[in-house]
Amino acid sequence: MITYVGVTLLGLLALSIPVGVVLFLLGFGIDIFFSNFPLIRGLGNMVWSASNSATLIAIPFFVLLGEILVRSGVAERTYAALDRWVSWLPGGLVHANIATATMFSATSGSSVATAATVATVAMPQAEKLGYDPKLFSGAIAAGGTLGIMIPPSINLIVYGFLTQSSIPQLFLAGLIPGLALALMFMLITVIICVIRPDLGGMRRTFPFPQMMRALVDLVPIVLLFGLIVGSIYRGWATPTEAAAVGVAGAFLIAFVFGGVSWDMLTQSLTGTVKITSMIMLIVIGASFLNFTLASAGLGRELTTFMEGLGLSPLGFILVVVAMYIVLGFFIETLSLMVVTIPIIVPMVLVQGYDVIWFGILMIVLIEMALITPPVGLNLYVVQGARKSGSLNEVMLGAIPYCLTMLLMAFLLIAFPNIALFLPHALQ
């Protein structure tokens, strides 16, 4: 059955069928050929129970928050401000790409939205200032992945929902690895541009008074992040309530900067409906698939298989890492999460690992999938914003950052407290 599931899943995805539909079709096939129960009769109840959760209401709110910030022009102001603070480093404006992605990751909760935001704002600068297109676009694609690590993160919300673990604890656990990953991206950029200065383009410095004035455009994003995350950890709001407060804060920021209009609101709401519908179809389809897999005994098969390998806990987790890297080449990231969590997480817990820690490790591996071909969504988002050149350039530019993520995954395995320090300290 394991072979049937893997081959069928890849085959249906290769036909360009929407991922949510693929999950339902695969569930129907497993139900017909492997299950002893007529699960299709209970499909309506499964769909309702999978979507009837207050936790999931946070998803459209965080999507709308990001849409408002992007379409109101706040992204351009943030990018220009960070340009004045970090473009003196070797690599110049590449660091502004990473820094802007980091700041928007702290509000949008979506990697694709973050990558699209930064790419739209930054790409016109690349040709004007003579940057290497590979490194410049690769940094944007990689920086965008931080959207699912730095809280608030839609993927962490889905992980918490599926594993019944604490979302505030997951948000805390993702903060240090997310910020560390951003700094590692900047460090690898410096190393590359010191070795090959021609790749980094122009390094620019600005008068200190001008740098200080630019902080005005950064303060609203910092305050918004503090409002969302702070309200959760102070116990003033649940993640869902904090997301709603964040939308109100984003609207206020857009209003202050003069970015509110009927056209902006229409585009933001339309974009929110589209993205949320896609996410929910995947979540519901995955819930149905997971139920059919459990009823057909796939979990028992996998458990027996892994126990038969006789691996130590470390060996087991390295096999899981390798599995996610390989699957990340072929399966869209959110789908990869929701399909594998009910199967892999119980086995991880049996090995003695912490569910919060594994969630962060999984997110790092999922981030890698966003910038590895052929299904790396951020690669296509950045290429779409470029409007010239080949996709191969974006892929090549993302390689150093992909290796940096792999290093972070090994650091998390070697030093679990990178993720667990804040949850334990503030428990």
From TrEMBL:
Pfam families: DctM. Residues 8-418 form the TRAP C4-dicarboxylate transport system permease DctM subunit domain. The gene is dctM3. It is a multi-pass membrane protein. GO terms for cellular component: plasma membrane. It is found in: Cell inner membrane. This is TRAP transporter large permease protein. The chain crosses the membrane at residues 12-34, 54-74, 135-158, 170-195, 215-236, 242-265, 277-298, 310-327, 334-350, 356-382, 394-422. InterPro entries: DctM, TRAP_DctM. One of its GO terms (molecular function) is transmembrane transporter activity. Belongs to the TRAP transporter large permease family. The keyword Transport applies. It comes from Octadecabacter antarcticus 307. PANTHER family: C4-DICARBOXYLATE TRAP TRANSPORTER LARGE PERMEASE PROTEIN DCTM, SIALIC ACID TRAP TRANSPORTER PERMEASE PROTEIN SIAT-RELATED. Part of the tripartite ATP-independent periplasmic (TRAP) transport system. NCBIfam families: dctM (TIGR00786). The complex comprises the extracytoplasmic solute receptor protein and the two transmembrane proteins. Keywords: Cell inner membrane, Cell membrane, Membrane, Transmembrane, Transmembrane helix, Transport.
